[in-house]
Amino acid sequence: MFDSRRRRLVAAGVIALLLLASGLLASRGHWPPETVLSSNQSPSLPAPGFVGRATCAGCHAEQDRLWQGSHHDLAMQEANEQTVLAHFNRDTFSKDGVASEFFRQDGRFMVRTDGADGKLADFEIKYTFGVTPLQQYLIELPGGRLQALSIAWDSRPQADGGQRWFHLYPNEKIDHRDELHWTKLSQNWNFMCADCHSTDLKKHYDEASRGYHTTWAEIDVACEACHGPGSQHVALVNKTPGYESIDPRTHGLVVQLDERKGAHWAINSTSGNAARDPARTSSKEIETCARCHSRRGQWFADVRPGDPLMNSHLPAVLREGLYHADGQIDGEVYEYGSFLQSRMNHAGVTCSDCHEPHRLKLRAEGDGVCLQCHAADRFDAPSHHFHETGSRASQCVECHMPAKLYMVVDARRDHSFRIPRPDLSVKIGTPNACNQCHTDKSPQWAAEALRQRLGHEPKGYQDYAETLHAARTGASDAESRLVTLLRATDQPAIARATAAEALGQRLTPETFPSLVRAMQDADPLVRATALEATDAVPPEQRWEAAHSLLRDPVRVVRALAAETLADVTADQVPSAERADFDLAGEEYLSAQQLNADEPGSQVNLGNFLSAKGDIAGAEHAYREALAIDPGWIPAIVNLGDLYRQSGRDAEGESLLRDALERYPAAASLQHSLGLLLVRQKKLMDALPSLRKATELAPENTRFLYVYAVALQSVGKNKDALKIVLKGLKTAPFDPGLLELKSELSR
């Protein structure tokens, strides 16, 4: 039923296994149309335009006053005496053999540090970036590039350890060749940061010159970044002739962030918790904030305030490295993905229920913000928090919103509002709030203490930690657990989407129907991940399962459908659906064009074109990825595989060997070269490369499996069994390894 060769490779992935003739590696509803115009926009009027904060402040003086000095106001500023917080008094900072010096020259702020060539040079600070607890500095390089210096200023008070220079990657040795060096793409403002630190940002990347002409309406996060362009609102207020057709109930606004209007929270005397009346029926405000306060990728530039987040962005699910198995924050994920997991989101809470949206401060100090909705006599008491009232340990956030440090000094709180679960720490190794304070105690101690206090095992709203842990560790019951979670509509959609993604990594004929059902889920993130998870299914079955999503009301889902169905041939597409198929494909190509400055998008484009049979176009895209970043390994791997597809193995071998001269520690390159040599029936020559791949990536069970099969093929069964047993230590229930173990043990 399922193709054992994956059609495409994602940017972070490694080359898929090839079907070899030798048999050595033989193991591959209709939605309504999208609304184009906002409900308050007349087609006879010009599109809404940006008018600027000063215009808004003319009528909204109090909101403007609150905004001034906020993190949004100070998100980015021109560097001058008023905005630069750091000392530039010939200060020096040394790291990795480079002594950087900060000084002033002719009224400009300067740094002498290593440039893209590794040589010391003087660079002018053009902009400040952020304000507290740290401030970064942007340097302009040729091609319109603004780069964020990795040496930042700790703006906290000296008593708190601040007022010093520090490096954002203190534990990594970085030189000018490293991808984390301040001159590289990962530190590029135009690509990485600009969209969320400015208003009406237009990246304007020019692929021909590989440069930028980035523009903005305002340098910081001003009124219209959240409320949308205000020209029609101003015209309506000023009674400008021609604008009478605007519905006055909309006030001429592109979006009305009015979900709190008329809502009341009444505390239930029995539970001590509040309920919202009326229930929240939309997520406009949350998704407006989420465009920046989330771990996500931007797919489309024409962001329309009030539209679903996934009309323009694709949020990350609870992947390992980003989140712990129970959904707690791990990597730098911001707030949205956590909040989606919370009972508070389920109950109808919005961001501005807790945060004043212009000043960005909490609506009440300390526990007061929580006690708006949770009865003090029940929750602000030792019987609930088990600590002395008024102590730090008794504060709601210490247990329900534990913090983690990012960027060395920036403590950010988890917004999933979960109860402490030291019992899960014992079972699956996730962190817990109890041991974050009681560092001298064990999770077992914390679990028992909590059990005794409560009189029972703790049980929170989130119920998927052990399922996601089972998936991550390859447990024997992972598939059945994931199917159950995917169907559990009482659980947060982001967790169910994570289950869909995990099922795609272990897809079987038995689990495939669950993904097909998930493609019709009410939540677009579930639909999107279920769609992507069917990548290994043959084209005709993929079409049958996914073609309706070409007409999905959410644009990113449509684009993903086009990507997933890229290799469906013209004769497989009914004529009645050809227009939908082509339009979704255009949307997908538009998304890749927006991010043409990113090598991963060029690889995605190459994969899409390759699936369409456009070999020349695919090769151009892969080579463009390597022009942007010569060390982008997925581009090398995919280009080599493209050469395989087009019968150019000699070019592929040359490409891989040249790349390995430069990047000998790239496991996927070693693996790809080994596969190429296997295809050439040079099994003994392939073994060193396949072995090296397993040494460089010992956690990659696929590499271990392939190497073991190769050893078996040349009669080295004992050595093959050792490799299999090594893999089973990492993934004890891996079906391929278990089957091979059985063969080798006979």
How is this structure best described in words?
Among the domains are: 147 residues, no CATH class; 156 residues, no CATH class. The strands form 5 sheets. Strands 1, 2, 3, 4, 5, 6, 7, 8 and 9 form a 9-stranded antiparallel sheet that branches. Strand 2 and strand 3 form a beta hairpin. It is built from 33 helices and 17 strands. Helix 25 runs antiparallel to helix 26. With 746 residues, it is α+β, with helices and mostly antiparallel strands. The longest helix has 17 residues.
Largest sheet: 9 strands, antiparallel
Calculate the mean pLDDT score and round it: 92
Number of continuous helical runs: 33
Structural class: alpha+beta
Strand content: 5-15%
Helix content: 25-40%
How many strand units? Answer: 17
Shape: globular
Low-confidence stretches: 1-40
What is the terminal separation in angstroms?
29 Å
- Round the Cα radius of gyration to an integer and report it: 28 Å
